[in-house]
Specification:
Number of strands: 26
Number of helices: 11
Shape: globular
Helix content: 10-25%
Strand order of the largest sheet: 9-10-11-12-13-14-15-16
Oligomer: single chain
Amino acid sequence: KQKTAYEIAQRFVGSERCIRDRYQRRVHGILMEEKIPIVFAHGNTESGAAWATIIERLKKHGYKQFFAIDFKPSANESCITYALQLNDFMNKEVIPKIGPHKKVALFAHSLGVTTTRYYIKNLGGNAHIAKAILIAGGNHGIPSCDTVLLGDPQGKIFKQAPEIHTGISPFLQKMMTPEGEEDVKYLTLSSPHDYYFSTLEDSPLIDWADNRVIPFQGHWGVRECDDSFEVSLAFLEGKEATCPIGRALFPMPDRPFGSWDNCANTNKIERYVFTDDWKVTLFDGTTTKAGKYRISTAKFPNLIDIEFPEGIYYGLYALNACADNLALKLSEVNGKRPKSHRLPVYYYRTPRPEPMPEELVGTWKASEFGNLVAFGATEYFITFTKEKTFKIEGKVVFAPKLLMEGKCFIEKDPELYKMHLLLESSNFFVCKINSYLGGLLELKAGKMKLVAAATTILPLRPQVIDHPILLEKAKQNSPSQFIFSLLSLIHISEPTRRYAISYAVFCLKKKKHQ
């Protein structure tokens, strides 16, 4: 068909050069169409190289013009600062190459999403962008920013936190209407298993966008997976109406049945047990009290009323997609119900008592740092013992000599290990003593993939293996073995004095690397 179109066009237009230079020409009903140029905006801690896989896949479908920005610095700057950089990039790198009247499509991920929308709405991007594919973006806020602001209320370290917390900041308030974005078509891609949005899974959605939900993907997996690419390609080519992927709603759990432990602060021991016959008990470390509860799941967040002998606690709650993380926010006794579930208390399901798996025992060294890149990790070791203890050592920006120790509880599922780390000592300011870190482990062919909550202040449990830390068993050498491996005996002397002494001279030998 392409050859026929070319021959017909050449016959009627009369010039091969004309065919090459003017792609969008209709000749006797035949349209020769050029693919739209594509711009990419990466997320926190990444660079334009993060889009390499998607660019290669798009090339196979005929796309040829790609522009990937590198934000400076790569992490923790204001969305507005990054939007100004995107504006400069468009004016200096993109528009001069494609022409002032041609529009582009734009892919954005994570922090790049709110950056892109600010550019479109406030910096004239509406005139240059025809379509935007927004992946795992915090359009209604990111829960981690709420907790970051507790220790950094002015946003001096994490400068985007005052803009994209879940309290509906002035920055996000302006994003709640399509004003200034009317000419842009939006596709959003998100996953209920993205733990960055646990208990706030609708945050990436936009009311006037084509919203697609891709389950069982993490924050990076939803960007890279086949389903997301297929939907994106259909959207780019105007065929999204015929693509069913991601249209079905994921059934989120809403029954809090089971045993739950306060994981954010175990100085205050709390274990709730909710039964399916609407009875509840609360254990505070010394005493247990019993009561009853009722729930309403008609509207998110879910409503819960807990009645104990002293009165009723009115609250809000939400469960994550795997139903192993509970967010609960209660009033004072007989008080008013909270207006939102922002900054709730988080609970993990009470871990099952199981022995430490033998295959995990030992020291593991990281070769890739996964989501720890956000903290500038350059070294990371984790040690598990048979006695159910752990030790984490390494180097990160905020803790050059990282050291965390405590108790470890591992539950083995069919393919993964669920990890509960109870911190008894920590020199990392976002990981507090007497709190839990939750995570997942995968072990194959002697290599470990590990994903864990980045902070105990917001102990959201990862639900899938996504952007993991990659580790291998570290070689075990005792300190004395290490010292003597560096020494070479070069001379032993017989006594030359009247005293019964001898001496030996050693020198350091540099180890040769093959």
